[in-house]
Amino acid sequence: MMMKRWFLILAAVLSLSGCGYNQFQSLDEASKSAWSEVLNQYQRRADLVPNIVATVKGEASFEQDTLTKVIEARAKATSIQVTPETLNNPEAFNKFQQAQGELSSALSRLMVVSERYPELKANQAFRDLRVTLEGTENRITVARNRYIESVQEYNVLSRSFPTNLTAMVFGYKPKANFSVQNEAQISTPPTVDFGTPKK
Prior knowledge:
mainly alpha, de novo design (two linked rop proteins), 8 helices
């Protein structure tokens, strides 16, 4: 009787290892780790915004509307609570992604507008912050690419036979991935306006 029990346990272990169960665990953890790095870089960017805003406010004639949009976008992006369940909730994931996209757009606009202010461009603190922001945006891109790759690997496993049966039994659903919010908008070339600098 004891031998039969051990045989059943061994058979169960071998069947689980052959059905992709362990792979799901490994890839799930890899995607969570990659997502944590994305969040880390987004937080790094959010932490830069108050310093950028404070530096830009020193330029008395700077466009207040642009600053306000950056402040509001940061507030919106940091107000969304992100949990591990966010990865498995396409609606929450898209809401988070949209808020981060709005902050990216607001910061890009701020950098374009700042080109019109020679005193601001000459400000060493602003130049340093700009370089740091550019570096952070690059880190965000790298972190997002790693997350995209890890999710792709996980999703392929969850849709491939026979591991899709394991996914069905254990409830491993495909994970949400980053997408472009408005494909038509990004396919249109941006309008660049190098207006005369303000005095």
